[in-house]
Amino acid sequence: MANTRNQQVLATHRAKFEQRVPGGREFNKLLRDMGAEAYRFKEDQLDRARWWIYITLPINVGETFDLRLDVLCLSASYERVEPRTLTLVAERLHDRDARVDPDFAILLTSDPAAADLVKRRRGQLAILTINSDELISGSGVGLRDRIAEIMVTHDHYDLTRPITEPAAFYGRQAEVAELDFALDRGQSVGIFGLRKAGKTSLLNFVARQHERVGKPVIWLDISVLQTAEAFQLNLLEKCHKIVRQLGQKIPRLMTLTRDGNPNPTVQTSGYWIRDLNVLLDALPGRLELFIDEIDQAWPSRSNLGVEQAAAVMRCLIQLRGVVQSREAEGKHGIGIVCAGVDPAIFERPLLDGRDNLLYKFARLAFLSPMKRSEMGEMVRSLGKRMALRYSDHRAIDFIFEEFGGHPLLTRKACSVAARKRPRDEIPWHVPLSALEEASKMRGPNTPQSEVADVLASFTEWFGDEAAMLPLLWSDDPQESAEAKEWARNEPDMAAHLVSYGITDENWAPRIHAMRALVVK
Description:
The chain is of the alpha/beta class. Helices cover 49% and strands 14% of the residues. It has 24 helices and 14 strands. It has helices at residues 2-20, 24-34, 59-65, 83-94, 114-120, 132-137, 143-153, 173-184, 199-212, 222-225, 228-245, 268-282, 306-328, 344-347, 372-384, 393-403, 407-418, 432-440, 447-461, 463-466, 469-472, 477-489, 495-499, 515-518; strands at residues 37-43, 50-56, 70-76, 100-109, 127-131, 189-193, 217-221, 287-292, 334-340, 350-351, 354-355, 363-367, 388-389, 428-429. The strands form 4 sheets. The protein has a 5-stranded mixed β-sheet, sandwiched between helices. The longest helix is centred in the middle third of the chain and has 23 residues, at 306-328.
């Protein structure tokens, strides 16, 4: 009887979906033609233009594409699909419903530009867009062929921008736990690591997670803001917005109007700390402030120019004063997490012969390359979205040994290897030989060129330490042994080689592909 009742409810919701959604009837036929079954149709109560559909694929299709769990589909009856719609899908996938595949979804829409929007988000979301207008006009392309096409044409390894979607974030469990712990206690932390090692992605992930549970979160990027005044105003405006969204009484400010816009009659620098304290008093809890590109505030390292960098650094020093004074008064204040390449701003006691007032303000945490298990999860998960299999453990071992778990270098190697896929072979079991060949390629946009960029970046920031590498990795055993002894006895001379993942704890190459660039 229960089954009959459930079938009746499903039939009712299916009929309502087909009546209200253009192309709904044709979409269900597309599923039936492949032997797929939609077992749940749920109208979104927050937006009646959206329907959530849960689909079970036939066994043979699920095995071919490694989609053995149910597939989530969003039907969005919008003239134009905005990026936030894709983010909504990503959040659903990230909720990790045990029945739903976390690596793949379907979007049914009449927006012809949706496919391009999804393609631009490759590497973060694997979404098959199905145009409802084409279904209505009688497109004869079956669902299996549609899935195959998107898996072959979208390279999810080819991503150079920071990760913004939680579903695309892999590993880093220890680092996430460390930041959660620090923020819960109002401690300040600085995350530092190699170029493209995942610092901004880590900040993005933690910030999104905390924002989702209702914590007041603000994100600032010094390289984008450029000036001290922009830093001050952005912090105040975003804090004002949070107070307003929480329904708190808007306090009277000197630097901002009641609507939260800059007050043109007031000099921001003279009143921003006063207004920040007033806004913090209006918040129900501690503000969590994420600052990217923090090293741009260190004058000798900054691209902003010495004067602007020094002005931004003064802002940070004033922020430190706010944190300390509120802590002393027992008020909730600010938990700060920042990221950069060079930790000098918190690591060096002197600046131009004077005390560095930010020295040891933030506890340093170094983001070394990923662990083998985390890297393997990333490689396999992204490969699954492209109908690639890494069934030979030697392939994973090779990638880890060659590129040390560095996210960008690993992705680049896998991207180049994927181009060796025989035409339309689905799935393709990536052989070790394809990865070996990819690692040997030279020229622009190859794994070797990316390795060279990482080494060049490290050399730019830590030239003295980079100069030790030819000695540490020398083919002459005596020369190498003497260099390693030197590094042990003078740890400051090689302080970042290990923490940044250039070498292992014994000073041997962590990224083996880098050795050929150093020892010639």
